[in-house]
Amino acid sequence: MASDSYPFLGQHQSGIVTPAQDRLHFVALTVKTESLAELRSLFEDWTAAAQQLMAGQPVGEEKSLAAPPDDTGEALDLSASHLTLTFGLGRSLFVDSEGKDRFGLADRLPPALEDLPTMSGDMLEAAWTGGDLCIQACADDPQVAVHAIRNLVRIAAGRAVVAWSQLGFGRTSSTSSAQVTPRNLFGFKDGTANLKVEEPELLAKHVWASADNSAGNPAWMEGGSYCATRKIRMLIEPWDRAPLREQENIMGRTKKEGAPLSGGGEFDAPDFEMKGRGGPIIPVDSHVRLMHPAQNEGVQMLRRGYNYTDGSDGLGHLDAGLFFIAYVCDPRTHFVPLLRTMMKSDALSEYLRHVGSAVFAIPPGVSEEGDFIASGLFEGKI
Amino acid sequence: MASDSYPFLGQHQSGIVTPAQDRLHFVALTVKTESLAELRSLFEDWTAAAQQLMAGQPVGEEKSLAAPPDDTGEALDLSASHLTLTFGLGRSLFVDSEGKDRFGLADRLPPALEDLPTMSGDMLEAAWTGGDLCIQACADDPQVAVHAIRNLVRIAAGRAVVAWSQLGFGRTSSTSSAQVTPRNLFGFKDGTANLKVEEPELLAKHVWASADNSAGNPAWMEGGSYCATRKIRMLIEPWDRAPLREQENIMGRTKKEGAPLSGGGEFDAPDFEMKGRGGPIIPVDSHVRLMHPAQNEGVQMLRRGYNYTDGSDGLGHLDAGLFFIAYVCDPRTHFVPLLRTMMKSDALSEYLRHVGSAVFAIPPGVSEEGDFIASGLFEGKI
After folding, report:
1. Using CB atoms, which residue from B66, B187, B247 is nearest to A245?
2. Taking CB atoms and an 8 Å limit, are A255 and B184 in contact across chains?
3. Interface predicted TM-score (ipTM) of this complex, two decimals
């Protein structure tokens, strides 16, 4: 096993509390097969390939010259690069848009896997929204992440195809206190107050799904999580024309240090009561205030987003923004309320366009050799 | 100056023979101003910013809270990351599509800066083709490259806007013999026989523009070069279904080692005469044979391309390929004939779609403090 690889086996899937790697390739897939057995075999095949990929090995086995190679080859000389792979299932895998039970799995649909309600300000495009399945690949080297997604997509042939895919070139969150806080494309440090792998009790409370909490999770989700993605285009040109004071008032933090406007350093707690000229020094519509657990019944998310640039918008500007990813124990309590507050009240929203959205159930990790991802979903069904 | 920075000043611009960095952001711009003075001031402003960016410093200067910051900030905590910036000028900057002399610079149009002839198999899209100006940013860290392009685009406000932009996540060429040969998205080593910085005589012959060769270069191009880009979508799904033998016959090299099919190791010369079953062992329509200098009157290019993934094609596949970049002394002799051969005869072309194309004149480097990029173009004109 390569020295820069993470183990595949574990209670939880990799890529959630793993220290956020710098590069991302995320794919959503549309399932084409109508066979439950084929759907299960897809997870079995993906599990075998994921173990090889995360260990830095080519997928499959060496074939003769007369056959197509099992591995596509572009990562042959590259290391494991701390690759993690995280697999998820969308609501549309269980019930289609007309409510039809696609695979006889509807009774195992997690109640928390609801479609997101429409938000004021949503500008969602079908090309970046939803998906029956998802795979998040994170790695130090983007070619390793792209290679993994490509080979997993290839393995899905005949059973699932690409719905959409997103590259991220720079992480915008830390998930370990050993990591430096990165910056988003507004130039601000992001995710300072993120949940961290060093806080297992908070993770148990806010990130991991369990069968005994109020989410009503089915047994197969025990030890899993929920992944919410938002593709958020950032209007960087008007932002770049805003005075520094306005930028800092919108964020509620200083740009250079990332310190709360109430003073101290990056990791000091914001003082939301402190008075400034004409109101609180951390404005009532600032991002840090509205998203803070203190304003949200103590709710926290594990954020794991990435900066993206997709070329140009055809109107003379760069098409750039944030591919937001959050892992939470229940999107209904831990994501929807925060998103609603943000889109409705946050001063930042003026500079954002939400163009994509998806929610996926993330099954637990594979704990034992021979088991496979989402195996509990199929138990007793086939 | 940061320890991982390259000097800005030099006979040639950076980013040509600099050892190819792993990540790319390339932008083509449309000039909006009609003023020669404003065009010149753009190059002056870009020159000042490029010096700061390459040194790992924020652009501009620190402003008060009441003003928009000069630097957008997302690279504040990042190193110089070996950033290089390479500026170029398209034919359309000199004469528009109706032949009109836009800035009174038509008499300084390099004869070598011709529009590429239409190629059989071209599937060019306007969204990836042409441009009045270009900037190539290469760096170890993609966020540093994106930050540079974004800030240079911002500086251009009122004078030029983005025509198109392309991210590349993995280099496909080495430009120094100290570098490992990377792989393209067909899984093959690419650029094994590329020109290298360690070969100054070959660079002088094939890459650098000079006023005394047959290209008829104007004086302002002395020490410059020409940059040709092609956005080449790779049909990875059918390729991945081709047997290894077919893949290797198309490339003319082995997949794992990158050795010519005639034997030896990666860096051994191919033996085009060696017989195999039913013909030469390196097939007549193989990529390595058709592109080899021995088949092209000794002509060589400095290739500097990048793998890209742009999401999905909307048809269930990943949209991925090669953003080809080559630097040559004269596109008429060093690029067009090879491109024509490749598109017409190369077995590889079955798996490629050329969707974008551009050629730019690359002025020489800035040798002295106080000078600016392309200054020679404006001399005596303003």
Report:
1. B66
2. no
3. 0.96
